[in-house]
TrEMBL record:
Residues 67-76, 128-148 have a biased composition (Acidic residues). This is DDB1- and CUL4-associated factor 8-like isoform X1. Residues 46-61, 92-108 have a biased composition (Basic and acidic residues). SMART domains: WD40 (SM00320). Gene3D superfamilies: YVTN repeat-like/Quinoprotein amine dehydrogenase. Keywords: Repeat, WD repeat. The gene is LOC106600329. SUPFAM superfamilies: WD40 repeat-like. Residues 1-148, 571-609 are annotated as: Disordered. The keyword ATP-binding does not apply.
């Protein structure tokens, strides 16, 4: 469409098409029209002479049959020159943009005229028309300034895309002769050309509620999903079939279900809105032996953090501000590791992640703007509340807006920390920097407001950043340039929450408010055109700015959710206690259980996911 609009605004001789508004303005004055006509003819003749000396921009050169074209970067399967905020797929001609703006302004003027009072003298009507024209000009100028400010914001902090790091044909030739064959898959998975060819490959349908969690086993052959229907499904995703389905044992929305590493895919750790941390033992005959409660948070538990080399140890974080270290080898598995505080106030947690290289370090985020890193060996709550270092974007340190961290993840080598903020942007920190260091990269365009949304790296060397959005789309940014290289419609329900890249293949699984799991593979014949991206990004930014003005509504929503949950939980409390005593599942208690902790005034449930 952009290319067609651009061509329609250019005459056959290469000169610009005259503005139709000039003809309309000249109808009232014959002499002025004559002068304008002769002037326009001279301009056309002059432009025609200039056009003769210039080659046509879209002219195609005929080739002799059998003549080979010069080899370019086609082997790279990459369109590095297209993907910015002024990509070919998004670029509009000036004529097309003017036409839309004129139509919009004309509609607004007509609406204003309809709203004018009909009475009054001719003199009063004339002065009123002049005032209205002045107001219209001011409003049009303000809209144009807003549009320019929006474009400037979207284009800020971006870098140029680098050239392609992988070329298909040379790489295939090298693999055929055994050169660097062990690196072939890693380079393919991190190739931008394949990211730009991602498309929907299939759906996994079994759940009857929103799918909140996805996790591949270490070998990538199985995929676990958990849902609001309180069930967990283990999929043979390649064959699109469910191998195992079982009741999680939770009483409310399942938020995470993860395979423990080196466990032979026989152990799944789970957490949920009910605050329980449970472990499911799976048999080789595709059945669940039992589920056990190993810890209890007072408040929702959104995330678990696995230790990469441990089949029996992991961490959990809850909205009660507590981090549990859980060791399944112990009689009492849960050990309270730290209570996260800012000053004397507890900070409810939404996310936690262990550094994959230095497993003693872990990072948490939640109901304030700070990323906190702890060292399990050196936690002393009397000294800086046990925090090793804190990160925060400099403009959010003293911000009055109540900014939350909904998700954070370490890169593959633990050197970088990616953080997604509620109704803000995504920020990349260097985990080796000192306490208080600012962010290195900023990723814009999506919307993170309605749910506790995830973020992730994509690629074996964390080459890309991937996130869902309230607008229902999936965004992939090039990590270094911060430019969007892929943009896909990911959820009919309107929100994409969970994104899980495959550990060894170029593909990923996603889920959101829809009741299915979507699988994506780089099978598209053509590179993405990023159609509609710029308009969606602007719409997300405007809605975000409007909501920030009336941010008090957020507290009303959270208070309503808290009251509903409190009323719902009061009635079955006795039944739940009786059920716990007679439950067939084994349950471990802990002297450090957060049931004994006071939730405090900060204990408010987050919005439903």
């Amino acid at each position: 469409m952009a290319e067609a609009d651009g061509k329609s605004s250019v005459l056959n001789d290469g000169s610009e098409e005259p503005d139709p508004g000039e003809d309309q303005r000249g109808e009232g004055d014959a002499s002025a029209a004559t002068e304008g006509h002769s002037g326009s003819q001279a301009a056309l003749r002059e432009a025609g002479e200039e056009a003769k000396d210039k080659p046509m921009p879209d002219a195609k050169v005929a080739r002799v049959p059998g003549e080979e074209e010069e080899e370019e970067d086609t082997d790279s399967m990459d369109g590095s020159g297209l993907y910015s905020l002024t990509e070919e797929g998004e670029r509009e001609s000036e004529g097309g943009r003017r036409e839309r703006v004129n139509e919009r302004d004309a509609g607004k003027r007509a609406a204003r005229k309809r709203n004018r009072p009909s009475g009054g003298t001719a003199h009063h009507s004339s002065s009123s028309d002049e005032d209205d024209d002045d107001e219209e000009e001011e409003e049009d100028q303000e809209e144009e300034e807003d549009e320019q400010a929006m474009d400037a914001w979207l284009g800020a902090e971006l870098r140029d895309l680098s050239g392609p790091s992988w070329r298909a044909v040379p790489s295939l030739k090298s693999r055929e002769i055994g050169r660097d064959s062990h690196q072939f898959v890693r380079r393919v998975c991190g190739a931008r050309g394949l990211v730009q060819r991602l498309e929907l490959q299939g759906r996994l349908e079994r759940h009857t509620g929103c799918v909140n969690t996805l996790h591949f086993n270490p070998s990538g052959t199985r995929l676990a999903s958990g849902s609001d229907d309180l069930r967990v499904v283990v999929w043979d995703w390649a064959r699109r079939r469910a191998e195992l389905e079982f009741d999680s044992g939770h009483k409310s929305n399942v938020f995470q279900a993860k395979f423990l590493p080196h466990s032979g895919d026989s152990t799944l750790a789970m957490c949920a809105r009910d605050g329980q941390i449970r472990v499911a033992e799976l048999s080789a005959t595709q059945r669940c032996k039992n589920t056990k409660r190993v810890a209890q948070h007072k408040g929702a538990a959104h995330k678990l953090a696995l230790e990469p080399d441990s089949p029996c140890s992991f961490l959990s974080a809850g909205e009660d501000a507590i981090v549990f270290a859980i060791d399944l080898r112990l009689d009492r598995p849960a050990n309270k590791l730290v209570v996260v505080k800012e000053g004397d106030k507890k900070v409810g947690l939404y996310t936690i992640f262990v550094n994959p290289v230095n497993t003693h370090h872990f990072a948490v985020g939640g109901r304030d703007q700070y990323v906190r890193i702890y060292d399990q060996r050196k936690i002393n709550e009397n000294e800086n509340n046990g925090v090793l270092k804190k990160f925060c974007p400099s403009h959010l340190v003293s911000s009055e807006s109540k900014t939350n961290i909904t998700c954070l993840v370490y890169s593959h080598d633990g050197t970088e920390l990616l953080t997604s903020y509620n109704d803000e942007d995504i920020y990349l920190f260097d985990s080796s920097h000192s306490d208080g260091a600012d962010y290195r990269r900023r990723y814009k365009g999506h919307r993170n407001n309605a749910t506790v949304k995830g973020v992730n790296f994509y690629g074996p060397s964390s080459e890309f950043v991937i996130s869902g959005s309230d607008c229902g789309h999936i965004y992939l940014w090039d990590k270094v340039s911060a430019r969007i290289v892929q943009f896909m419609e990911g959820d009919r329900g309107g929100v994409v929450n969970c994104l899980e890249p495959h550990p060894h293949l170029p593909g990923l699984a996603t889920s959101g408010l829809d009741h299915d799991v979507k699988l994506w593979s780089p099978t598209a014949e053509n590179l993405t055109g990023l159609k509609g991206l710029k308009d969606v990004m602007k719409k997300n930014k405007r809605e975000r700015d409007e909501d920030s003005v009336r941010h008090g509504d957020q507290y009303d929503t959270q208070l309503l959710w808290f009251l509903m949950r409190h009323m719902r939980n009061r009635r079955p409390q006795r039944t739940r206690r009786e059920g716990a005593e007679g439950d067939t599942d084994e349950s471990w208690s802990s002297p450090d259980s957060s049931d004994e902790e006071d939730g405090g005034p900060d204990h408010v449930q987050c919005m439903s996911s």
